[in-house]
Amino acid sequence: MHRSAPHPSSRIDTLAVHAGDDPFRFLGAAAPPIFETSTFVFPSFSDAVAAFADEQEHCVYTRGRNPTVRVVEEKLAALEGAEACRLFGSGMAAISAAILSCVKAGDHIVAVDTAYGPARAFITGYLSRFGITATLVDGRDPAEWEAAVRPNTALFYLESPSSGVMKLQDVPAVTAIARRHGIATVIDNSYCTMLLQRPLELGVDLVVYSGSKYFGGHSDVLAGAVLGPAERLRRIGDAEYPLLGGIIGPFEAWLVGRGLRTLPVRLRQHQVSAAKVAEFLAGHGRVARVHYPGHPSHPQYELALRQMRGASGLLSFELDTRDLNQVSRFVDALRYFRLGVSWGGYESLVFVPVIGAMRRLPEAQWPNPGLVRIHVGLEDVADLIGDLDQALRAL
Ligand SMILES: Cc1ncc(COP(=O)(O)O)c(C=O)c1O
């Protein structure tokens, strides 16, 4: 094997370390250089003509192609087992680009009602300006998707598990319905990543990610990705990518690439620790219910075993109280679980969904104030369980 040839292994840990990287493309640099440049210049007129013939394949301007971004896109595509990948400046930039690539004015979308809030707002609110209608479904029963299909349905939008109460859709069953009707499918796979769920193998057309979560892994970067067949990504590369311009900067892409190298190792630890935390919470007297697809108490545990390879570090649970004073006492007593949105970083976080609803919605529409979401970070799990235990005692 030539020293600079791509690594031949298809094992995920090896791909995470080596895929996309070819040090000898960049003077032997073990870490890819950050091409922090907006534009690229040409030695001659004819070189410029050749480059402009295909701005996706040649570096002309960073809102088309950038070598650092490309290295990371290649690593992600190899990890996903996808033909192609495009990185974006945030998960929402990737999600909106993927959705827009599937619809036109007058179309109809069926989406799961627990999809990430801004994705839902984009589908049901923003797109209505263009005459695009939407039906939200609970989504657990594939028959609901079938029943929601109209002659103008162009897209099924899935998020499984959802990141609030970890609700699953039967991905092979839903994509089979979509295929029968000629409907495109997009799934947000941020919760699992491609390590714990392989949506393309389950029949999905496009996979979208918030790379701000596990890909980056250190709560220091916003990023997004769309993965799928080369022909679909090529069209996105010609249209939504340069025209909406929600692209990622070279430095942010580099941070994602660095994060991906340790993704399998980090995710294994998140998973092991979260399973222990879920078990502790499920047995605690002040906890009414745990929502974790990796725990046998999850109502769709069998489906999780069938279509997922494990659950990640994010879970939620319901306290045995709905009293806001009690809930706030619990949250304020936590020491390792810091209060904030997002997840997927090295650190443990806690969020109470009612906080997000209080300013926006009338009280009758608030979620259960006792619903608490935690991300189980990479701290020693004994410290995390001890932290939850003492905070539950403060209730
Ligand atoms: C499940 C899920 N999808 C998408 C997003 C949006 O990603 P970003 O914040 O990178 O735009 C988030 C962010 O919290 C999320 O939790």
Automatic annotation (TrEMBL):
Keyword set, alphabetical order: Pyridoxal phosphate
Domain of life: Bacteria
Family from the record: Belongs to the trans-sulfuration enzymes family.
Cross-referenced Gene3D superfamilies: Aspartate Aminotransferase, domain 1, Type I PLP-dependent aspartate aminotransferase-like (Major domain)
CDD domains on file: CGS_like (cd00614)
4Fe-4S listed as a keyword: no
InterPro entries named in the record: Cys/Met-Metab_PyrdxlP-dep_enz, PyrdxlP-dep_Trfase, PyrdxlP-dep_Trfase_major, PyrdxlP-dep_Trfase_small
Protein name: Cystathionine beta-lyase
Cofactor annotation: pyridoxal 5'-phosphate
Keyword NADP recorded: no
Pfam families: Cys_Met_Meta_PP
